[in-house]
Every structure is written in C-alpha cells, then in structure tokens.
C-alpha cells in the first residue's frame, strides 16, 4: 500500500512541477544537446512550447431522441391468428435513445416499451477499445391457438367408448419470451490477451393448451378419454460463457467454457387415470390413480472448447478446435424413478484449411466430427406399473458418430463471371439398434445403422451488362439408407436469380427454385395383434416450386412504388399406411401445400415536412390431402378425409403511416394497421384486428 501511495504521489506531482517550473529551469531544458551518434554535431535548440504539438481534439458527437404515444386496439371475433405476435391490449408506448461518439468513450443506449410483454432495451459502452460492455433485454408476445374438440361419430367395434373432454373451452393462450444478455470484453494492457464474459437468460411464461389421453383397447366398456386443459408455462434457461483468447505469434489460441441450465418452474400435471389390467392388448398394465404426466424435466449442459487458428489475412489459413460437453437429465419426478440417471457425452472435433494463392482463386476444406455417447439406466421404477417391484425395462440409448466433410472452391477469371462449387459429405453411424424386448413383443426403432449423404452444388455468378446480375445454381444430393419416411433418397435442385437496376429509377428481381425428391426405400413392417406381420412399401415423391418477382420504380425523387408476387408450392405423392382396428392398408395419396403472397408498397415525400407510406399485402394459402379410396373395415373408410382435412385461408393486411415534422427536432406520426384472417372451411379462428398508434418524437 505504501508503494502504491508513493507512485501515486510521484505521478500526480509530475505535471504540477512542469507547470510551476521557473524560466531558468525551462532554459536549462532547452540548452544545446549533443548526441553520441552525431559525432559532436550541434542540434539547434527548440522551445518546448513549439516542439510538443497539441493533441488533436476530437469533438464528441451526441444525439438524443425520445418518443411517446398510445396504441389503440379494436378486435372483431378472434384476433389471435390475424395478429399472432401482438399483445392485443391498448397501452401507452415509449421510445428513447442516446448515442454518444467520442475519442475515448463510445456510448449507445436505446429502449422501446409497447406493453409489459413487448419491449426492448440495449446499452453499449466502449472505452478506448480496452473495455466493452453490452447489455440487452427484450420481450416478445406470441398468441397460441387452441385445438377444439369434437365428439367422434363412429363407435369402436369392440364396444370401447371414446370421450372428448375440454376443460378450458373458452381459454385464450399465449406466451411471452423474454431474453436478457450481458457481455463484457477486456483487453489486457500491453498484452495480446482478451477476456470475454457473457450471460444469457431466456424466460417463457404464460399459458398453453395441454392435450393428453387415457386410452387403451380394453377392458370392454371402459371409457377412453382425450382431455384438453390449460397449463401454466414458466420455463427458464440460463447460459454463462467464459472465454480467453491470446495472440501468440503465428497462431491465436482460444479457450471457452459454457454452461446452460434449463428449469421448469411450473408444476408437473397430475390427473386421474383408470386401471389397465393385464390383457393381450396391454403391453404394460398399470394401476389406477392420480399420476404425473407430460413432464418437462430440468436439464444441464456444460462444455469446454479449445480453438487454434493462424492469421485470418494470409494466403493460407488453418484452424482447429475440440469440444467436450455433457448433457444431463435432472428430472424431479416422484412417480417415476431413474429418469435423472440419463446423460449424454458429446465430443466435437473440427478442422479448417483455406488456400487463397491469388485474387481470382480460393479453395477451402472443412472437417467436422461428432461423437454422442448416450447413457441411460437399464430400468426405471413406476409407482403405477403393475409389474414385480414396479420395475420397467428401458430401451438402450442409441449412440451416434457423425463425420462431415466440406470442400469448396471459387474461381473468378474476370470481373464479369464467377464460378463456385461445393461438395458436402455427411456420414452417420448408429449403435445399440438391436431389437428391444418389452412384455410380450419385440420391437426396434427401425433406424439404419449408417446413413451417407453426398451433396454437390455448382453456382455461376455473372454480370453480362451494366446493372444486371445473374445467379444460377444446380445441386444434386444422394442418400444411402434414409433414416425416416419423409427423408429423400435422391434430390435434384435448381435456382435462378436475376436482379436489374437502371439509373436508380427502376429495378426488378426475379427468383425461381425447383426441387425434386424421391424415396423408393421407405417401408414399414407392422406388428399386428390381429394378423401376421406385413411389410408395406411406402414410396415418396415430392416436387417443390418457389417463385418470386418484385418490381420497384421511382418516377421522381419524392415517390417510390414497389410490387411483388411470391408462389410457394410443394406436392408430395406418397403411399400412406392407414391403420384401424383391423389390419392396416397402404394407399396412394397426394398432399398439396401452396401459398401466394401479393404485396404493394408506396412511399411519398410530399414536402420537407410530410412523409406518407402505404403497404398492402394478401396471402392466399391452401392445403389438400387426397387419398385413394380404401375400405379399412366394414365401418371405416378413407371417404371424407379429403373434405375434412382441407384448409383454405386468406390473410389480408393494410398499413398506412404519416409523419409530420413540426420543426427541425419535433415530429408527430400516426400509424394505422388492419389485419384480417379468414378460413373458408372453418370460421373458428376468423378475426380482425385494427391498431392505431399516435406518437410524438423529439431529437436533439
């Protein structure tokens, strides 16, 4: 402490001594000086007032702004689909910010408040590049849609009754997602070392619909129920990161530690289930009573990462990294024991090599390797399992190894054309796929032991004339042993993009994408209780067509007009396995999903005081499921599935805004928004939302 005090006195005394120096002392400083290397050459004396140039003064620029207003909501019918991301309640709004840019200090603070579920705030501070602090908070609200139950009109052949029970038929659901972020970066003085700390938090709160079933085939005459109810949501995720990076001559080294923890603060649902005794149709008989269900277990993940890379500006750049992580299930169930013993160990290895010998050619090679070693208990206990000791066997966890190799190149022979190519190979191996024997029957997941995905793309970029840019891409992908029924075995893809601009007055963009996917390997083997096992071939063919065209024009400086049209369409032809109480049957089906988006926009600056804007948009969507007619049983057919599954909706929106500048620093604005959702075949979620926002803002 005494040494620090002495140093502090010396440092603070130096400038005082210079200021209080006498004329004689100043003359002594300016006497002739002889330097040894000058061989006695005399140096002309220079006055300190002229030898030390004044430090360049950098003016600090500061901008401050604030706004206040009110949002009015008008809702007709159900507005949750019309405005999915709006908290549908009128409220005041506030907006403020300050931006200060100086030589040593850089400071930015801004925030917006719409309501208690929609807001954001951001703070950034930098001191000489040595200290950096970033704080951010934001929240977004999302309206959730509830499924509405209907009573089945076809009785079960075996006499079992099915009852749909909705305990919250009038409930409205929604979630607010709040994120908080804190980042700090510190650079050690005179050392090429940085310390990075950050903390991230995600909170989802609100309510959602929960659907669960108490269902089985037997005993005869027992009611099987499907229940819908409201569930409180309170999920919290915390994540912390610690990082250190250092520049050590030819390489940079980085170490990072991450820990993420998820917690569910809401209680696990508990409801009454009837007893299911031993029978031919009950694989796991259970006792009756109030039981926990639909649990969202807590979990924790942590990882250590080490990275090395050479200079990122050289002709040859290399990088490598290794990550070791562990993910743990931290279930706190009381009805079930042993679930908290499950954990995953992850190891990731990565390596990159980039070669750029000249300005017109570059190539890169990337390698990724991941190992997932899953550990789970061989058995768990359940208080309601009607087995000896309430013990249930558990399917062995599937381990996985995955390797990904990516090679790219880019050739630019001249300024008018560029060629790019990429190959990506993804190779997955799985272990512990042996059949798992549960009471009375053997089953397996049906996943392949290995899957290989090879994908190649070739792209041409061109500028044939001034103002015109073209892009063409072709890609081919082949998959050996697709993992799932929706996975493709072979895929062809093509893309075309053209943009054109003329004299900053007219512009146009056109994009088209076509893709063709096939899978001839898809199949399913049934384990039927009523007939011998049967293998069904389920081939799948999918076509995708996406197109977008947009045009903008600015006839004069005050006006800009734009229009666009987009088509998103895909159709899948696939054999589907229909199951009923009798053995299932496979039949051909066609599923079509299509959306069309029309939009018009205009921005008009009437004069220096008044700005006007108008935006119109309409989205037409439809989905059709068309199965081949099949008689599944004497009372069950595929007739009516097409009409019952049709969807055809229209979403319309209008937005208008006017900004009037009362003075150089003061502006008032009015914003109007109209949103409408209309379903042609079902009016349950139809609704209209109108929003009027008026605010006054000031800047100085």
Automatic annotation (TrEMBL):
The keyword Glycoprotein is annotated on this UniProt entry: no
First and last residue of the signal peptide: 1-18
DNA-binding listed as a keyword: no
SUPFAM superfamilies (alphabetical): Porins (SSF56935)
Region Disordered, annotated ranges: 35-54
InterPro entries from the UniProt entry: Porin_dom_sf
Keywords: Signal
Protein name according to UniProt: Outer membrane beta-barrel protein
Lineage, uppermost ranks: Bacteria, Pseudomonadati, Thermodesulfobacteriota, Desulfuromonadia, Geobacterales
């Amino acid at each position: 402490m005494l040494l620090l005090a002495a140093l502090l006195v010396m440092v603070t005394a130096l400038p005082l001594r210079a200021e209080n120096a006498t004329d004689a002392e100043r003359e002594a400083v300016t006497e002739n000086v002889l330097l040894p290397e000058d061989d006695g050459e005399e140096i002309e004396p220079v006055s300190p007032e002229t030898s030390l140039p004044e430090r360049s003064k950098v003016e600090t620029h500061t901008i401050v702004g604030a706004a206040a207003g009110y949002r009015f909501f008008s809702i007709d019918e159900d507005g949750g689909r019309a405005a999915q991301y709006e908290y549908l309640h009128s409220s005041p709004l506030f907006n403020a910010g300050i931006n200060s840019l100086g030589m040593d200090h850089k400071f930015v603070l801004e925030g917006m408040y719409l309501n208690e579920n929609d807001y954001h705030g951001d703070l950034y501070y930098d001191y000489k590049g040595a200290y950096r602090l970033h704080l951010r908070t934001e929240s977004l609200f999302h309206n959730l849609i509830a499924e509405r139950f209907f009573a089945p009109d076809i009785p079960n052949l075996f006499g079992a009754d099915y009852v749909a029970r909705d305990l919250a038929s009038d409930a409205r659901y929604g979630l607010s997602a709040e994120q908080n972020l804190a980042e700090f970066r510190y650079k050690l003085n005179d050392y090429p070392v940085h310390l990075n700390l950050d903390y991230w938090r995600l909170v989802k709160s609100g309510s959602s619909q929960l659907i669960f079933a108490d269902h089985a085939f037997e005993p005869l005459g027992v009611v099987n129920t499907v229940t819908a109810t409201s569930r409180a949501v309170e999920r919290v995720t915390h994540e912390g990161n610690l990082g250190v990076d250092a520049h050590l001559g030819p390489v940079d080294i980085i170490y990072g530690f991450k820990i993420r923890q998820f917690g569910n603060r809401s209680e696990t649902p508990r409801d009454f289930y009837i007893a299911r005794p031993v029978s031919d149709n009950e694989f796991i008989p259970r006792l009756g009573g109030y039981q926990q269900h639909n649990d969202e277990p807590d979990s924790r993940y942590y990882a250590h990462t080490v990275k090395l890379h050479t200079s990122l500006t050289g002709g040859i750049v290399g990088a490598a990294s290794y990550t070791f992580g562990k993910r743990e299930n931290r279930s706190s169930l009381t009805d079930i024991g042993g679930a908290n013993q499950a954990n995953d160990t992850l190891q990731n290895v990565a390596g990159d090599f980039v070669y750029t010998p000249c300005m017109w050619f570059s190539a890169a090679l990337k390698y990724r390797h991941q190992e997932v070693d899953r550990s789970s208990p061989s058995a768990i206990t359940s208080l309601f399992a009607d087995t000896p000791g309430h013990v249930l066997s558990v399917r062995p966890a599937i381990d996985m190894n995955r390797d990904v190799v990516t090679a790219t190149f880019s050739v630019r022979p001249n300024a008018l054309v560029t060629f790019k190519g990429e190959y990506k190979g993804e190779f997955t191996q799985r272990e512990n796929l042996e059949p798992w024997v549960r009471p009375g029957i053997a089953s397996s997941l049906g996943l392949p032991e290995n899957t290989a995905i090879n994908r190649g793309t070739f792209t041409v970029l061109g500028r044939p004339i001034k103002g015109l840019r073209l892009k063409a891409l072709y890609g081919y992908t082949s998959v050996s042993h697709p993992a799932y029924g929706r996975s493709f075995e072979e895929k062809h893809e093509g893309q075309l993009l053209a943009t054109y601009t003329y004299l900053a007055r007219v512009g146009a963009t056109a994009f088209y994408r076509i893709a063709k996917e096939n899978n001839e390997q898809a199949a399913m083997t049934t384990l039927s209780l009523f007939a011998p096992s049967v293998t069904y071939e389920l081939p799948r063919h999918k076509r995708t067509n996406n197109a977008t065209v947009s045009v903008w024009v600015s006839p004069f400086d005050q006006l800009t007009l734009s229009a666009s049209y987009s088509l998103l369409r895909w159709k899948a032809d696939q054999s589907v396995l229909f199951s009923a109480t009798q053995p299932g049957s496979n039949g051909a089906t066609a599923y079509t999903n299509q959306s069309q988006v029309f939009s018009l926009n205009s921005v008009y600056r009437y004069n220096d005081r008044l700005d006007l804007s108008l935006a119109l948009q309409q989205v037409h969507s439809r989905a059709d499921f068309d199965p081949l007619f099949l008689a599944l049983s004497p009372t069950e057919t595929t007739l009516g599935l097409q009409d019952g599954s049709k969807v055809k909706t229209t979403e319309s929106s209008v937005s208008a805004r006017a900004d009037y500048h009362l003075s150089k620093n003061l502006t008032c604005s009015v914003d109007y928004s109209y949103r409408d959702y209309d379903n042609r075949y079902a009016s349950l979620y139809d609704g209209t939302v109108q929003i009027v926002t008026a605010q006054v803002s000031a800047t100085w």
